[in-house]
Write a structure and sequence with these properties.
Elements (H helix, E strand, L loop, with lengths): L1 E8 L9 H8 L3 E5 L8 H6 L3 E11 L3 H15 L3 E7 L7 E2 L2 E3 L26 E3 L4 H10 L14 H14 L11 E7 L1 E2 L11 E2 L1 H31 L3
Parallel strand pairs: 1-3, 1-4, 4-8, 9-10
Antiparallel strand pairs: 2-3, 5-8, 6-7
Helix pairs in contact: 1-6, 3-5, 4-6
The structure holds pyroglutamic acid (PCA).
Amino acid sequence: MRTVLVTAFEPFGRDTENAAALVCAGLPDQGRFPKRPAAKGNRADEETGSREGEYRVVKRVLPVEFRAAVEELFSAMDEIAPELVLCLGQAGGRRQVTPERVAVNLMDAPIPDNGGFQPVEEPVSAAGPTAYFTNVPVKAVTEAAKTAGYPAELSHTAGTYVCNCVFYMLLNRIAFTPANEATKPLWGDFIHVPYVQEQKNVPQDKPSLPLGQVVDTVRFLMEETLGRMEETMWEEKEYEDFGM
Ligand code: PCA
């Protein structure tokens, strides 16, 4: 059983609802993901006779505050010990569901956060690298979603506001989590979602998608990611078996 931590955010700015929170609430609490056939044969199939894995979803809604959001994300990760963390945020104005590839070490807030903090040209982490890439194979996962007909597009910027900060600190934590036998795999990504049609007070001039379509897209992305994580783990196991 894989555990996925899915986070969303409270409303911010002029919005009275956050699309990400609606999408998070719409995701299943548990489900099954298709195991991708591994290059050298899916040994999980031989052992269990199943081509599917099980997962459960734990959901959290974070405050739109630079520091508090990271603190709450980290305490949820400590408590839940997930294998996959997917942080959802609203990007009003985007037309599609956009998995993020890059988090940058920059806080440059166009508006104050919900606590009144408005950093301008400050690093997220003074000692950290300029940027991190997600360790989810996000291009392949997004391509799979597009091929299956979902409205998804890879994004190369999560902005410079609270979402990017949370994404950066998530990847920073993953980078400093040693990959040894005592540690479970830990993958993390951020997915921005557009406004959804069911949301209150969506600005008339902004694009939006039906909530159900966005939920289905995020669900596909999550399950595809879990499938690929399984495949990677079996490949790593092959190396161990050969004493490498
Ligand atoms: N979107 C904002 C912060 C919270 C949210 O849902 C962002 O993109 O930074």
